Protein 1
Amino acid sequence: MLIFERSHPGRRNAAQAPHHSVVIGGPSTGLRTGIPAVLLREDRPLLPEASEMDVVRHYTRLSQKNFSIDTHFYPLGSCTMKYNPRACNTLAMLPNFLARHPLAPEASGQGVLACLYDLQEILKDVSGMAGVSLMPMAGAQGEFAGIAMIRAYHDARNDMARTEIIVPDAAHGTNPATAVMCGYTVKEIPTDANGDVDLDALRAATGPQTAGLMLTNPSTLGVFEKRIADIQKIIHDAGGLLYYDGANLNAILGKVKPGDMGFDVIHMNLHKTFSTPHGGGGPGAGAVGVAQRLLPFLPLPVVAKEPPPQPSPASEGGSHYRYLTEADLPQSIGRLSAFSGNIGILLRAYVYARMLGAEGMHRVAEFATLNANYLMAELHKAGFTVAFPQRRASHEFIVSMKPLKDATGISAMDVAKRLLDKGYHPPTTYFPMLVPECLLIEPTETESKETLDGFVAALKEIRDEAHAAPELVKGAPHTMPVRRLDDVKAARELDLAWKPAV
Amino acid sequence: MSNPNNLKYTASHEWVRSEADGTISIGITQHAQELLGDMVFVETPAVGRKLKAKEECAVVESVKAAADVYAPVSGEVVAVNSELDSAPEKINDDPYAAWMFKMKPDNAADVAALMDAAAYQAVVDSEAH
């Protein structure tokens, strides 16, 4: 039910209504608003009319219907749905952070600029890059900024023959989309039987037309690309640059640096790896890191730390922080938002990074890969088909439900829907498409052994049900507020408006 | 559903039917539609467009993924099946009846050189993990 459907004309909470009421604006009130009369609306906007209590109940009920990391195990592969520590929220929501206006002068915002500068330094260190910009407001925007910098680099050298970006077929769909957005042609290369990049195909695809390679390591298949040194040599020898898709950074955080692998540019999904709330479209933060040669092209504004112009009480620790602008970085690819990125998310990521500390960062990767490998081993032992059993999993792995589908007709999607009844958010389904009937499972580092064992038991139960009572599984979910949605009709007849616009 | 013997096939999962007027009809195979699942959108090439063999020229989008469709041979697009605009599910219902576009091939020999049903089935089998 929509809040609009709870609307009654004139509905207000008469018993608790404030004693004094004020009528604001509008042509009939005679107030001088400064807005020309011709631009003032004559009809009320179509907003719901409900009492405060109606609104609170409506949204509280909606929140109770939600499947979230705060209520359920959420092993959604490639999404890193780890627990978001409450301390990060609490500190990022300190009143002086919340109330700061984006146009307030830098002199009165030295504290927040110091936090952002520190975050840039932490990310530089953990990624092994020479510089970082926090501006991209999502992973996809970080990717865009990264490839735009590769393009700006080649253009600045007048190297205009480079028209292609190489992307492995296991890549996230955003990679080829990003390359096309930046004006490149995409060259797709295949994956070999072990889940690695096919090096012969890479050599054949690389040449003077190559602007760069986009690579996720560990890949979406959940395995670490061991021949990354060879790969970076092939691309660099041809004059191309390497882009690191940071979607799977959680698996290697504090253990391996993309800069050391030879990458020239990286985006980091702070909302995933650095544990800020995410899902449902945002807000995110896709900070970018670059090697020395791409520093001039970083998106603005970047926070700089300088000696104070003149000593003042505001210059904490003898330093002064300021935003670098086009005057400092004339070759910058430009600005990606009106102000300075998603600061609320950046602050949460900053608190998270400071809580772990540089010396604690490696625990993220260790527990994430331990949990993934334990879960993979238990499912393998229970007779499920693991896509690459000979490989050690990174932070996620793939199980194929094809044998179950062949035997019972129960698909990966049916299994996923039935998991909801068992109290588990399903893993990612049907991605990557290289493995048929696949579930991409990422438990993250924050789950206990008991939770992982419960998940294995639930999958075993569902497999038994698929043989004994297939209709039960095909009809799932049975216990949710809604049954199986008609996603085909929803996609074919997209209808998002409450009423047609008038 | 088996792959009809009177059609030709590509490794990228298009089927090709030679018509009496010398044109060819192109669609996607049963294997392709089964992998993609329920179709929600089909984009066909413009009539008159000249295509090179293996050139991306159409898109099929399902609830799971979007996939490119490639020209099986070089030639010119002479017709598109506009019925699919409003009823993309026809590809799921009967992939070998739901042709997407027709081409006039530059060389009839190119069509003859495509895979037959048995060779295509071998490709599908080799892709199964």
Protein 2
Amino acid sequence: MDTNQYLEMFIEESKEHLQACNEHLLELEKNPSDIAIVNEVFRSAHTLKGMSATMGYEDIANLTHKMENVLDIIRNNGLQVTPELLDVVFIAVDQLEEMVLDIAAGGDGKLNVADTVQKLHLIETGEEVPVAATIVEAKVEAETSQDNWLSYDDYELTVIQQSFEQNYQTYEISVELREDCLLKAARVYMVFELLEKMGDVIKSSPPVEKLEDEEFDNLFYIALVTNEPKDDVQKKLMKVSEVTEVKVIPVTIEQLKNRQNNALDLVEEKLQKEVHNEAKANITKSQPTEAEKSTPSKGQTAGNKTIRVNIERLDILMNLFEELVIDRGRLQSISEDLSNSELDETVERMSRITGDLQNIILNMRMVPVETVFNRFPRMVRQLARDLNKKINLEVIGAETELDRTVIDEIGDPLVHLIRNSLDHGVESPEIRKANGKPEEGTVVLRAYHSGNHVFIEIEDDGAGINRQKVLKKAISKGIVSEEMATTLTDKQVAELILSSGFSTADVISDVSGRGVGLDVVKTTIESLGGTIDITSTEGKGSLFSIQLPLTLSIISVMLVELGEEIYAIPLSSIIETAIIRSSDILNAHNQKVIDFRGKVVPLVFLEDVFDVPKESNEDEFHSVVLVRKGDKLAGLVVDSFIGQQEIVLKSLGTYLTSVFAISGATILGNGKVALIVDCNALII
Amino acid sequence: MTETVDVKNLKVVVFQLADKEYVIPVSQVQGIEKLIHITRVPKTPSYVKGVINLRGVVTPIIDLKNRFGLGESVLNESSRIIIITLEDMHVGVIVDSANDVLDIPMDAIEPQPEVVGGLEQDFIAGVAKLDSRLLILLHLNLVLNPIKSGV
């Protein structure tokens, strides 16, 4: 079979299922007794098995099969969920992920999984004695009393009773499909069609709708009213392909009534004062609820119609649109020159439409931070075990959306920060206990929108930053001098840990502490146009707050003129603009400053900074753009303001990296390139 | 038949700089453009002329003559920008004119003579003699060494 055309879909869906496995396993670890979660994992594993077998990836199928077996035992209450057991399952999921990634990278998806398969097998069989016993017991019970099969309501009982009176037989039928059956719904349909030819199906478990949606494993039960002999029914059903086992058991109305009463008695015992009717309702309901619990997630995705689009296509769309924006600008200036009213109108309409288009395209590129956050629970779990710490990771606001370009870059810095929190922040359980804190440390990963920015925060309730320790280290590394050290505020001290060549971990651990981490974090975030801020209280914990622009591709700028050249200053760093007289400029230590609303603000003459070729003409008035970096201000002196504009941010390319005080470029309406001023570099 | 030709020949773009002819393998040339407006980028070496808008991509431009220490290019009608792609880097170089695409037999390429001297010598990968023409093969990796941090 030529499976190439399905490959992409297979990879995407496998990734989704693996992610779902990961998430649910983590949840399971917290609630080891919640069988609903096991069912979720089982379902993902099962789908994965089916898909990989179809695509011919045997190792994946093999491993998922073993995993599924173990899960199956768990959900039949044959096994307790233990951390050790989960470890093995996690390893299996990791290996599956590895194989899927290998396939995505063009490999053959082969991996030596024998070891893991063996481990899973051990779990499966190692506890086999008690497990098998219970299963067999359950089966025996089912065959003798059929307790677990079906329960009927009054109406159904009446129907059965009436059919008995008309000499019809009632059978309870169990149909088992092959485990690797791919078209379960189709088989179900065939079974039902056959049965309906022979008689009336009065009940099925799970309900028909669930069967049609393939929301069952391999086994389902049906109650049939017919006048065909038992053996015929069985033989006919066995003809349906991929059906492995059919059991037909005749029931009598007395049996059914007994069963009903028994069940009622049981319930009555439990609920004691509950009224009969309510109890009945409970029995019939109890079965579907569990299945229902798991359906909403599926239902949601199905209700929201989406298609997968390769991210590259969106990038191409964006690039094409950017060109369109540039041409739009050109068209606008042409129509202004021609002053033809019809042309003006058309151009105006076009501008409006492209404006809407721009919003849509930008929105399409927004991705929830979930895509980055997803991998953290696993990482934290692993790290916590490696470090022998107890840590609970809380993720808040994973649905917050960010531009894809930001998302791509933010992953590594966050990994660094979380590792840092786990390694240096949260203390070991013994120390925490001694300090009167709960043994389990909490790390909160939070994302939210605020204005034109997105904030991502990592908060821990660990030891916080030790001022003395940090200062000692900073002095020994020559980052600050001893005199300076005493004058620093706590915040400034905290920020020292972001300077390069700084590492306070006494023991260099595998997790962090190579002293290259946090300054890289700072540089990456600054290169994204963001800032990082640390708040820490010793003994209480620390908060790392990252502020990021919503999007990197389109920003608002103020265009200014310097001689013949046009530069763009990001609005995010501009406080205001002003026009000052030459006489207002003061001199302080060779530095020209102005008195701006009671503050002394240094002036930066951009013409000099950028060596703009220009014959000097002494103006009496100067245009000044006041910009800030943190709480420092500076006045950028320019020739004139052009105006505010939304621009598409472009990089200068790999050849020109880190040009002084230039953070990028953009293309103006006239097709020319304008450079974007990096205000952070101009404020010392 | 064709295969053997491919192995033996190197397809190159020929361009003129001062009075010499240089060649770059066609595989590294993305296109040849006429001069358009170049935006100066401050605080960069003098041979970096600036950046252009190449169909929506901001592309840096260097003056090859200046890079080789042969003085400034005088821009005129025949001046061209050759867009070169090296791995993921796109750079345009200004040349006096780009006139030809040639097949050079591999065995006609010789290592550069030791005596040439000057800055330009470092960038020469080899010399090919073709009929009466002397074609200089450039070492693009060295010519287009990325520029780190300004002053």
